[in-house]
Amino acid sequence: MTVVGERQEPAQEPSVEAALGQDRAHSARMYDYYLGGKTNYAVDREAAEAVMRVFPAIEVVARVNRAYMHRAVRYLAHEDVRQFIDIGTGIPTAPNLHEVVQSIAPDARVIYVDNDPIVLVYADELLDGTPEGITCYVEGDVTQPEKVLEAVEAAKCIDFGQPVALSMHALLHFVPDDRDAYGIVSRLVDRLPSGSYLSLSHCTGDFEPEAWAAIVDTYEQRGTPAQVRTKAEVRRFFDQLELVDPGLVVAHRWRPEPASGPSLVTDAQVSLYAGVARKP
Fold first, then answer.
1. pLDDT at 17 over 70
2. Entry pTM
3. Rounded to whole angstroms, how far apart are CA atoms 158 and 23?
4. In whole angstroms, what is the distance from residue 47 CA to residue 252 CA?
5. Cis peptide before 193, with omega less than 30 degrees from 0?
């Protein structure tokens, strides 16, 4: 079963470029470029290449993050979690989250949430789930958690009476403290029942502070707020939750598997913390 959430039509018809965000770089399309994807524009490629000049390993970061997401949601599916809310979905890249979890649990329900209009254009790739399961897509901005929850509830894909896995992968470093990143996560997790999980990955400047300061500047100069955080600061997102083994670690060290992401990489190249935690 597949569902696309409703969206409001704009009061005025914007230009095609503005409607699809082609007039400015977007973090999701830059991420697509790092992964070698084709769903990006010249403005995204220029910004991504500016980042690559100061930190050539950014492609490693993206690929390690992708591999971590696959391992984390496989773990959760094996833990009998059957519902997933993925916020900050980004450009579809196979295998997508629902394909990973529904390969283990065909009846799993997955709802994707993103605020990039180009993601909606490619939403069909996010909605090709199993007949037994449900895959949905709604538009939403993580900085408005109440509206995100309203949209998810309206889509009727998720039963909030049963455990839910909330995934926020490579997202919160685009939510600086002045946008209340910790409060956002707290409000989202508060809505989830006992037995739910949070899976999160987050870039850090712990290993290469000067390079990551330059990366943040590159994003901000192009209109995308950003803030990398220390391990202790990332750990705060899991307050009141129980981290599963091995805790909060550099992402390639989270339950590594053969042929799962780049190998022979250093912590400094990865510069990404990741963890999964359970709500008691």
1. no
2. 0.91
3. 35
4. 26
5. no
pLDDT of the residue at 1: 54
CB atoms within 10 A of CB 228: 21
Pairing type for strands 242-243 and 2-4 reads unpaired
Distance CA 239, CA 251 (A): 19
Percentages of the chain per state (helix, strand, coil), in multiples of 5: 40, 15, 40
Using the predicted structure, report yes or no on whether residue 31 has a pLDDT greater than 80: yes
Residue that the structure tokens 């909605």 belong to: 127
Quote the tokens at residue 4. Answer: 């696309």
Return the CATH number of the domain spanning residue range 2-6+24-239+251-256+265-278: 3.40.50.150
Q: For residue 186, give both structure tokens.
A: 């707290």
Pick from 208, 206, 142: nearest CA to 175: 142
| Residues 86-132: tens digit of each pLDDT | 999 988 888 999 999 999 999 999 999 998 887 878 777 778 899 99
**Which pLDDT does position 3 carry in this prediction?**
54
Helices (H), the chain: 16-19, 27-34, 42-54, 58-78, 97-104, 117-121, 145-155, 181-190, 209-221, 231-235, 267-270
For helices 42-54 and 209-221, give the axis angle rounded to 10 degrees: 160
